[in-house]
Amino acid sequence: MSLLEKLQGERAALPAAFSAKAVGLAWLGAFIAIAVVAILTQRLEHMLILGSFGASCVILFAYPDAPFAQPRNTVGGHFLSSLVGLTVVSLLGVTWWALAIAVATAVALMMVTRTVHPPAGSNPVIVWLLAASHGGLGWDFLLFPTLFGAIAITIVALIYNNVTREGRYPKYWF
Q1: pLDDT tens column, 5-44
Q2: Which helix (H) or strand (E) is 77 found in, with range?
Q3: pTM of the full structure
Q4: Residue 53: CB atoms within 10 Å
Q5: CA distance to 30, 90, 174, per residue, from 104 (Å)
Q6: Which of 51, 50, 66, 28 is nearest to 156 (CA)?
Q7: What's the Rg (C-alpha) of the chain?
């Protein structure tokens, strides 16, 4: 099969549409999760927000049963990816190839540790951008916003998904 034939796709049907209730519940869950981290950021005077947390909300509230939405994946994926980003930038600097190495390594490390959380794949990019624009980035980035922010949105998901859904959340912890 040629590349052009592969690019045409399989012509599979679109996934089923979400019900209005599911859309509304996902909207409210994402609203609450981001509101919580934004309020905590203001109250604690520590940044708890990463751009990737918006994408995490898509998974946590629209697809809570998916492996990517489990607490292990959300918290572990964000932490490992930020750790990789900080390590690579501190060792190799802010170069295009360091960024590519950081993202690729974060993907591989999440796969090896079974903590794949797709939004976390952008954390090395965030680290690189912040390091480039601020002349560096401290290791405290692992705690604030990465770890505490990921824990906060996960706690919201734990409560919210168990209050609003019949199924259990999470599917697994470790």
Answers
A1: 999 999 999 999 999 999 999 999 999 999 999 999 999 9
A2: helix 71-92
A3: 0.95
A4: 24
A5: 28, 16, 24
A6: 28
A7: 18
CB 56 within 8 A of CB 119: yes
pLDDT computed for residue 113 by the predictor:
98
CA–CA gap between residue 171 and residue 144 (Å, rounded):
27
For residue 20, give the H/E element and its range: helix 20-44
Q: Which two tokens stand for residue 101?
A: 């190495």
CA–CA dist 65, 26 (Å, integer): 13
Tens of pLDDT, residue by residue over 53-63, are 999 999 999 99
pLDDT interval class at 174 (50, 70, 90): confident
CA distances from 146 to 7, 46, 95 (A): 37, 11, 22
Residue whose tokens read 């012509």: 11
CA distances (Å), origin 172, targets 18, 62, 73, 168:
24, 18, 10, 10
**Six-digit token pair at 139?**
């290791």
Structure tokens of 3? 């590349």
Q: Which residue has the tokens 């947390």?
A: 53
pLDDT at 47 over 90: yes
